[in-house]
Amino acid sequence: MEEQLPASEESSGMVKSGEKMKLFYSEKFLEYYEPGHPEAPARLKAIVDHLARHARAEFEEPRACPEETLLLAHSAEFLNLLKSEKFFERDSPALPGIYRYAVLSCGSALQAMQEASGGQTAFSLARPPGHHAGRCRVGGFCYLNNMAVAALAACQAGRKVAVIDLDGHHGNGTEEILRGRENVIYVSLHQVPAYPGTGLSSFENCYNFPLPPGTGGKKYLATLDRALKVVAKFSPEILGISLGLDTHECDPLLELCLKDNDYRSIGFQLSKLGRPAFVVLEGGYDPETIGHAFHCFLQGLTRKETKP
Ligand SMILES: [Zn+2]
């Protein structure tokens, strides 16, 4: 039986960046968009508005990621291609200024990681997402791999990191970049079959837990329990959590069936590892539900830090 979060902790708690945790966010993340594209500003705005309204959250402005840190995960040629905006990928269009936004999104993840390294849980509320971006390619709405950059920067600083990818899609880019690297593991729960078609089995330091369409909270939490045993055995100093809310039953892109309360349980299960975490936003495409689902996750993860 999964341990449940006590009901008394389920009401909204105050979330104040700088006291109990850090929340990194910039209004610049809302500036770029492609008409009709599901990776739209409304999804991030829904999370930020929800946290501001229901948890009185305060946010810190992130800084751009230094280029030498980007080079931990990406090639110099690829960075130049992104800067030139002369690439074509149907799902990840070369929008004006996209490199600047991607570098800021990476910087937000990097700062969240640095907070976690100092023992404080931190969240990067940013777009574009990153987990489909490979060392030399964009893909799946992603340009730079925020999580891989932050995780490798942590490794460079001598930290042992477990990356736990809870987006409903497999993080093929993160897996590609972290595969075979020392002091880091990649663990992912995701729907199969679905985009990008990878993540069917485990190898080296990459542990994949595919889930069939229709998977609900009970099966998801039982699978997460197995995945977290791998993480506990690895004994990381910090957790890097790629959080996608496209596992929600209302999400238009996938057929997983998590409910809001499941996110509280997922966060709670992660908190039991007893390690500081940095959470990086990946996907999630239903602006109606994404805000509350994110808040539930935050409450579960920081259960000792939210006041009833
Ligand atoms: Zn996704």
Describe the structure.
The chain has 308 residues and is of the alpha/beta class. The protein contains 9 helices and 7 strands; from the N terminus they run E-H-H-H-H-E-H-E-H-E-E-H-E-H-E-H. It has a 7-stranded parallel beta sheet with strand order 1-2-7-6-3-4-5, with helices on both faces. The two termini are 25 Å apart. The model is unreliable at 1-13 (pLDDT under 50). Zinc ion binds at residues 167-169, 244, 246, 282-283.
Lateral strand order in the biggest sheet: 1-2-7-6-3-4-5
* Cofactors and ligands: zinc ion
- Tell me the major beta sheet: 7 strands, parallel
Q: What would CATH call the architecture?
A: 3-Layer(aba) Sandwich
The CATH superfamily appears as: Histone deacetylase domain
Count of distinct structural domains: 1
Structural class: alpha/beta
Distance between the termini: 25 Å
Strand content: 5-15%
Summarize the structure.
35% of the residues lie in helices and 12% in strands. The chain is an alpha/beta fold.
Outline the fold blueprint.
Elements: E1 22-25, H1 41-55, H2 67-70, H3 76-84, H4 98-117, E2 122-125, H5 146-156, E3 161-165, H6 172-178, E4 184-191, E5 206-211, H7 217-234, E6 238-243, H8 260-271, E7 277-281, H9 290-301
Parallel strand pairs: 1-2, 2-7, 3-4, 3-6, 4-5, 6-7
Helix pairs in contact: 1-9, 4-5, 7-8, 8-9
The structure holds zinc ion (ZN).
